[in-house]
Amino acid sequence: MVVPQPIQNQLKKEAFYGCVICGCPVLEFIDFTLTGIQVDKPPSRQEVFLPENMVAICPSHNQKLQAGKIDPTFLRSSKNNPFSKIHDDLAFRTTFSKELTVSLGGCTFINTSRLLVADDFDLINVRRLDQRFLLLDVNFFDRSNKLVAILFENVWSSERSRIGDWTIEYLQPKKLILQNSRENMNLEARIENDTELRIVCDGLCYNNQKIKITPHEVFLDDREIGIDIKGSVLTNYDVGIRAESIIF
């Protein structure tokens, strides 16, 4: 059952928008009084969501919790002392600034949330809260155009039957990695110099076309897009790199 949005927002905010254990910005929500049972699991009875009994953690620590490798009492302690509060310098955030700067495929986008859009469908979107903490939206399609996972405002959702396909790591300094072994899919989002977010990926798809983002190009299969703006610094754009259906 999906956790109500106001409770999600409350749990993310009190966790400083990262896993309370490691600071990873990819999040799921756990009721630690249920010894690790995921609150989005189809319920046999009506669910009651009590934020005081819930916590935001990353999928990797969620798996460890359900495997019995994390004591639920440790989660309660971490809820009161989340990683990103104690280790502010290691949290997935930029320094205080009026500008959100993202490097994508050889372009620099300032205050542009919709970074990669195909047929007016957002594939990668980044926003910022309190001029610091980053919220990521990524839609993960496989080669057959099936949506296999969603990251929306840092909240993770994927097929439970395929959860083992994913590896989600938060490495220091401030480097997020999401990999799918079955689909040979990966995305990396790294904060550099505390001021700029750099995104690269390979194996993501849309409309049966493979998406690859390097530090210098963006490709749909073997076709480079965004060539006309490559090397530019663009501010307050509605869309960063746009792909139309004609090129698929």
Question: Can I get a quick summary?
Answer:
This protein has helices at 5-14, 59-66, 72-80, 83-86, and strands at residues 28-31, 54-57, 101-104, 107-110, 114-118, 121-129, 133-141, 147-152, 155-158, 166-171, 175-180, 185-192, 196-206, 209-213, 218-220, 223-225, 233-235, 239-243. By secondary structure, it is mainly beta.
Question: Features of this protein?
Answer:
ten-stranded mixed beta sheet, mainly beta, globular, single chain, six-stranded mixed beta sheet, 248 residues
Please provide a written account of the structure.
The chain has two domains: 5-90, no CATH class; 101-247, no CATH class. Helices cover 12% and strands 40% of the residues. It has helices at 5-14, 59-66, 72-80, 83-86; strands at 28-31, 54-57, 101-104, 107-110, 114-118, 121-129, 133-141, 147-152, 155-158, 166-171, 175-180, 185-192, 196-206, 209-213, 218-220, 223-225, 233-235, 239-243. Strand 6 and strand 7 (133-141) form a beta hairpin. The longest helix has 10 residues, at 5-14. It starts with a helix and ends in a 5-residue tail after the last strand.
